[in-house]
Amino acid sequence: MPIYVYCQYCIIPFPTTQYLLDHGAGKYCSKPCYFHEKRSKPFSARFLAKVDKNTCLGDECGCKKGLESCCHTWLACTRNGYGTFCLGRKIPYAHAVSFFLHYGYWPKPCCLHRCDNRICVNPEHLIAGTFKDNTADMISKGRQAKDLHLRYGNDNHKTKVPDSAIPEMMRLKSNGWTTKQIMEKYGLSKSQTVKILNGTQRQHAISA
Q1: Taking a C-beta distance cutoff of 8 angstroms, is the pair 61, 53 a contact?
Q2: Higher pLDDT, 160 or 82
Q3: If you write DSSP's letter for every residue of the chain in order, what string do you get?
């Protein structure tokens, strides 16, 4: 029976055998990972070299938000405001890697910040949660739909079709109008029109 372990370079689970583990092998998922690891520092050392544990962030720091310790600031690359860390063929978020290093397993499906600081990688400030937990946390902290591209309908001043026109679009569809006719009438793209007519966008206007 194969045993799944984490590659010591890229931390991707892969199958090996107890025989190989007993003989000091089965530590890497591939030859590239084996040679990369031999030529470079362990990923834990590479990770910690990119973390500042000694600088307090002031009002934005976890210690000012009721937590026991300061934030550990990620100093390297970021994506969407979150730190990123290269692990072989994957580039996970740095706070998820920090969680793995501290607790020994990946936070699936989400890794949440108790300190609400995206570049923090202090494992004491991180908890594993679900997508539902992540959404609830976002709403409770007022971070939802702040960006223009996340707003729909009358909440977005660039919208081409007001909410009041959506019921009329649905009526035209039920009367036999084609998607092409409706998109030309309202000046929308095909993808926008299909999403509205299928109810995947602007649902609040359809039910109004």
Answers
A1: no
A2: 82
A3: --EEEE-TTT--EEEE-HHHHHTT----SSHHHHHHHHHS--HHHHHHTTEE-S---GGGSGGGTT-SS---EE-S-EETTEEB--BTTB--BHHHHHHHHHHSS---SEEEESS--TTB--GGGEEEE-HHHHHHHHHHTT-TT-SGGG--GGGSTT-SS-GGGHHHHHHHHHTT--HHHHHHHHT--HHHHHHHHHTSS-HHHH--
> Domains plus CATH for the chain?
3-40 (no CATH), 47-140 (no CATH), 152-206 (1.10.10)
Tokens of 15: 């199958």
Q: Is the pLDDT of residue 144 over 70?
A: no
Contact 52, 70 (CB under 8 A): no
Structure tokens at 160: 């081409």
Average pLDDT for 29-41:
76
